[in-house]
Amino acid sequence: MKQTGIPFTEETITLDQPETREILTKKSPAGLVPFLTHQSGSDEITVWDTLAIAEYLNEQFPEKQLWPEDKKARAFARSISAEMHSGFAALRTMWPMQFVREGLRHLTTGGVQKDVDRINTIWTDCRKNFGETAKDVGPFLFGRFSIADAMFAPVVSRLVTYGPVALSREASTYRDMMHGLPVMSEWGDGAHAELDR
Known about the structure:
Layout: H1 20-27, E1 35-40, E2 43-48, H2 50-60, H3 71-86, H4 89-94, H5 112-131, H6 147-161, H7 169-179, H8 182-196
Antiparallel strand pairs: 1-2
Helix pairs in contact: 3-6, 5-7, 6-7
């Protein structure tokens, strides 16, 4: 939402505190983050689950073109976003989010290397087959920013935290570009601020 200029108010909920579960279950049916609450006329709509939020935003803000315009690219973008959403269990387990850390050089055993290799393939294929030939040429996976980039932002953070890892030229360029985005820096600043509380 920040990257595309969709206005919203962010609420920070500190996790792993005695009151966290109670707060979350009042706000989200799953009791998890993220969730989106949208006041639509007289209705308050709650959307939880990352991919469901992304699809809801795509419906609410069609002018933002959150999926690629090209049908083939859009199908690929939806597929890799779903793969990110439900996959890469080893990487998620062995490399938890540590946004404020870099260069931990964590082990790539237990399936992590397989996940990293798959991510490298996805990013490389996207940049070669879609990003570099997109109608709206740009540095993102499909040229211009899309939901797919948002879905992979946490992976970008992990590859910086636990890297360096070997990536193709296309994939490493993409990782560095994403990590350098102002919204990623703002995310990191927020993580630092939470630790300082």
